[in-house]
């Protein structure tokens, strides 16, 4: 199938091809021997577990989102 590169160096991939990767959001792009290869990849959020722990601890301490906003505003004043 034919693909076209736009003036912004973006390539439109035909719908029939992308339908085979409906659940894929990210691809690894490589260029070898005059060919471009896209390989589906899954991005894992390594820090998500840590963020969940931090959020639970902040909640247990009674820290609200407004408290965080206020602290950021205070820090940026300096």
Q: Which short descriptors sum up this protein?
A:
single chain; 78 residues; alpha+beta; 2 domains; 40% helix
Strands ordered across the widest β-sheet: 1-2
Instruction: Give the total of domains.
Output: 2
Number of helices: 3
Mean pLDDT: 89
Helix content class: 25-40%
Residue stretches low in confidence (pLDDT < 50, at least 5 long) are none
Shape: elongated
Fold topology:
Layout (H helix, E strand, L loop, with lengths): L14 H4 L7 E7 L2 E7 L6 H14 L3 H13 L1
Antiparallel strand pairs: 1-2
Describe this structure in words.
The structure is a single chain. This protein has helices at residues 15-18, 48-61, 65-77; strands at 26-32, 35-41. It is of the alpha+beta class. The protein has two domains: 1-43; 48-77, no CATH class. A two-stranded antiparallel ribbon has the order 1-2. The longest helix is centred in the last third of the chain and has 14 residues, at 48-61. The N and C termini lie far apart (57 Å).
Summed up, what is this model?
The chain is of the alpha+beta class and 78 residues long. Helix content is 40%, strand content 18%.
């Amino acid at each position: 199938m034919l693909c076209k590169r736009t003036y912004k160096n973006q390539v439109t991939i035909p719908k029939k091809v992308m339908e085979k990767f409906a659940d894929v959001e990210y691809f690894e792009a490589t260029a070898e021997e005059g060919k471009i290869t896209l390989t589906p990849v899954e991005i894992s959020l390594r820090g998500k577990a840590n963020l969940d722990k931090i959020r639970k601890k902040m909640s247990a301490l009674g820290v609200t989102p407004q408290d965080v906003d206020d602290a950021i505003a205070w820090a940026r004043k300096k």
